[in-house]
Amino acid sequence: MSSSFAAALAARTLVLDGGMGSQILSRDLSIDSDYCGCENCTDILCTTRPDVVQDIHESYLRAGADAVETNSFGANKLVLGEFDRTEDTYDIAKCSAEIARAACDIHGTKDKPRFVLGSMGPGTKLISLGQTDWDSMFDSYREGARGLIDGGADTLLIETCQDILQIKCSINACLAALKEKGKSHEDVPIMVSLTIEQTGTTLTGSSIEAAAVAISRYPILSLGLNCATGPAEMVDHMRWLGKHWDRALTCYPNAGLPALVEGRTEYPLQPGPMAEILDRFVNEFGVRMIGGCCGTTPEHITELCQVADKANSNSQASRTIEPIAPSSTSLYSQVEHRQDASILIIGERCNASGSRRFKQLLEVEDWDGIVAVAREQVHEGSHVLDVNVDYAGRDGARDMGEVVSRLVRQVDAPLMIDSTQTATLEAGLRHAPGKCIINSANFEDGDTKFDDICQLAVKYAASIVIGTIDEDQEAAMARTADRKFAIAKRAIERAQDIHGIPQSDLFIDPLVLPISTGMDADRRSALELIEGTRRITAAFPDVQITCGLSNVSFGLKPSARVALNSVFMHELAVAGMSSAIVHAGRIIPLVRIDGEQKRVAAHLIYDRRSNALGGTGLPSEYPDALESSMVSVA
Ligand code: THG
Prior knowledge:
This protein is an alpha/beta fold. The termini are far apart. It binds (6S)-5,6,7,8-tetrahydrofolate (THG).
């Protein structure tokens, strides 16, 4: 059973209802009998005064609304728990959908069906600020979603979203509730509506770009804006969404910015002026559902119906969408996976096994010190931060939670969550609002563990690093370009075909092994890596390629490491490497490296002693090529 609401939204511009809260406030209701003593708990009215709720729905339907929102903004366990009504969550949510359904059944016709959108508000606790946790929030929303689905809601509308971690959690809760009921998001679509404050970000500080990137992988029908401001303040954000969001757009603003008049909140924007702006949104930005939030009335909806009627009588121009560049995000902002003149720099220093300082800070639980290391890396030029707390004798999942929950608030860089333990990875992901990169999956333990990590990447809409390691006990780590390519291909196909992860969110790590050991077996490592990188890039141009670059120079003197790592990074970038895990402060432009050091580095990388250059297709005049390329890198 596919959704008739989704079909209607694809076919024409729809009008949603207006504010429920302000309508309820205008009714004469008793705190004792109607609210059962729970002042402000408007959701309770679904069970105590269904007549009032239905009457408000009908007033909007008479005004011409195609869809009404259930009176269930706070119908989740966390909010109702504040009124000691946790156990009523399901009943209230179900009842809210039944009331809206009854109203829609009265006013719906064959030509103008009416739809019930199951409202799910943000609640009162910000998960990104640690006011609740993933499990509690998930459980809270799942119960509300169960009720809305059983009560017959046509869609689940996650609205007034202020926190992108809350959006991720509530979408997962909706998907879980649907699955329990033998349904999917195809039957009951999930819609998301963000709230952007006057400051230009969500309450928790996310830009519209960051929010869109963080949730775009989820199977949601639409994205839009509601609440906080009137439509005029939404223009830039809606324009951005119109240009970049690849699914339906919705918008239901407040009736302007609220003003305090004689101690009461008043919303000044009149129906006519509001409709004028939303008319622009429909015609210029391609918005498909318009309506009203706080302060809007049936009169506003009557005006909006004229906007929709006019749009629906013309043939609707299709939007030209410029897809959002593949990206990761912090809580606050977006970072593109492909950097223009450089590669995506992933800071390596928040790593308990890669940094003595970090390990010591972790041992004494100096969380502020850890935040300082992270910040330093951003100042040095890291675009993303790798975080690894794996350390024998400590509780990795707990440490990861402690570290990530602080970093996400205090550092504006996307995180790469790094662990060999699935539980540690998940502990990080459930605290990270932004779109993260999981580090890493491989086939060392076969498909099952690989699939587990891909499932994490789906649940949290994260990217994923995949190391070229497989089950082959003899040669688990791919040392040759052939094996690096073969394992990469297997991984890309499996992650994409079975798990639906887009190639641009896959970071293949063809594994950097030290070339500095003096052992014969290691001498070709860098060459094989460069060649493997070239082949993976050629076959899969959308895939990202990353590596733990500093591994190449283990054991060398610090100054030699800087030179070798820097030259190596340049060579890898030319071969198609799009990112690297490095110490950003210790990567320097080639022009600043002494000529002799550069020559030695190139000799090491290309193993010139064994004359390995023949047959690899690399420039035979390599040292000169390297010299001349310095200018372009500097
Ligand atoms: N691939 C992927 N992830 C990885 C790696 C990889 N994560 C971990 C590691 N390798 C990348 N991170 C580091 C971090 C530090 C160093 C090297 C790689 C390093 N540290 C110095 C040392 O050990 O000598 C610094 C010591 C100190 O400051 O105490 O070189 O390959 N996907």
